[in-house]
Design goal:
By secondary structure, this protein is α+β, with helices and mostly antiparallel strands. Helix content is 24%, strand content 29%.
Length: 367
């Protein structure tokens, strides 16, 4: 027999309220299977089972207050070896039976603070509480909040899972949000002298290469797990390409050692392959730095862009428009190109980013 005590949930919490048991006495469970949902003063969290075995006893019912260190459940650890039948209770599909040493389990936080009755109503109506605006005390979600949200979505299309390109984009953006410490700087350069006869994308590539030469730390891969930085000599440029299905980032290799015509042909071939969905997988991997030329859509000057690990930086080019500038002592209208540089501040300093942008602008302003 093994007694599982309510673990320390952190943040100085001494007690919790039981919201819902996910198992019953007599159920056989596996380690890390959700055992019970409890409510703290901040959120509802799921406590996973620390053992594989049979539930002999549960201490407390929904609404009861349990203090840290008090008994939560009793396990018969030997029962799991006596019968290889079906495991009952609600278990994630990805879980697999395995024995583990006793430990304080990791906690999966539920979104939003709400009383059990409110959560029950949300389940009945099929509403995800993370999408509901809370108006209750201390940011809690009330019955009226749930009913208001249900009324608002009554005429909406049913929720559908993201698939394909958009699903992959969701994973990448979530990874970036979890790992990167972003910072951005912005400026704009005067391109009036060449804009009518130059290739904007090729010029942007030349500017990025110039920036990488003075601040090579921005053309690199960073591993947060090992805290190691790998500088790259070649500039393998990721170029964001928008489609109706979502965003693709294809990679052009060694752009610093290619002629202008070769770059233009490579850009056109890359766009064709993305549109036809026959771009090789290897041409979607291994970028060392990325360009997002969002200005081609006719709106937007600056942006705080999203870096995809293990890259360290991404450059954005906004919409080119005439602006009043001082040239030769006179105020004149000149077309300018807005630039945004977002970099991972864990790796690169503000000075390194500023030097990169200065070098890029100097290259772009050359006629």
């Amino acid at each position: 027999m093994k007694t599982f005590l309510l673990p320390d949930l952190g943040e100085g919490l001494s007690e919790v309220e039981i919201v819902d048991w996910h198992v019953q006495e007599g159920d056989r469970v596996v380690a890390d299977q959700p055992l019970v949902s409890v409510e703290t003063d901040k959120a509802v969290v799921e406590v996973p089972s620390p053992h594989s075995g049979t539930i002999v006893a549960l201490h407390g019912k929904p609404g009861d207050i349990i203090r840290t260190g008090e008994p939560l459940a009793e396990f018969d650890l030997g029962a799991v070896h006596q019968d290889k039948g079906t495991v009952v209770g609600r278990m994630p599909e990805a879980s697999a039976p395995r024995e583990t040493e006793e430990r304080t389990p990791a906690l999966a936080r539920a979104s939003g603070k709400a009383m059990p009755a409110v959560r029950a109503l949300a389940r009945k109506l099929g509403i995800d509480l993370s999408a509901v605006d809370a108006t209750g005390p201390d940011g809690s979600i009330t019955m009226d909040d749930v009913k208001r949200f249900a009324s608002a979505i009554a005429g909406a299309e049913p929720a559908e899972p993201l698939r394909g390109v958009r699903r992959a984009m969701t994973h990448k953006m979530s990874q970036s949000h979890a790992e990167i410490v972003p910072a951005s700087i912005h400026d704009e350069c005067d391109v009036e002298d060449w804009i009518d006869k130059g290739d904007i994308t090729v010029k942007l590539i030349r500017g990025i290469v110039a920036g990488c030469r003075v601040s090579p730390v921005l053309n690199a891969w960073y591993s947060a797990q090992s805290m190691t930085l790998r500088l790259r000599h070649d500039v393998d440029l990721g170029i964001a390409i928008n489609t109706e299905d979502g965003l693709f980032v294809a990679v052009m290799r060694d752009v610093g050692n290619r002629e202008d015509q070769d770059l233009r042909e490579g850009i056109e071939e890359m766009k064709r392959c993305v549109a036809a969905r026959d771009i090789p997988l290897e041409d979607m991997q291994g970028a060392t730095i990325t360009l997002s030329n969002f200005g081609v859509f006719g709106s937007g000057r600056f942006a705080n862009l999203v870096i995809v690990p293990p890259q360290v930086a991404i450059i954005g080019a906004g919409t080119i428009r005439p602006r009043a500038v001082v040239k030769d002592g006179k105020v004149v209208a000149r077309r300018t190109l807005p630039l945004s540089l977002t970099f991972d501040h864990r790796v690169a300093t503000g000075a390194e980013a500023a030097r990169f942008l200065k070098a890029m602008m100097a290259e772009l302003e050359r006629s």
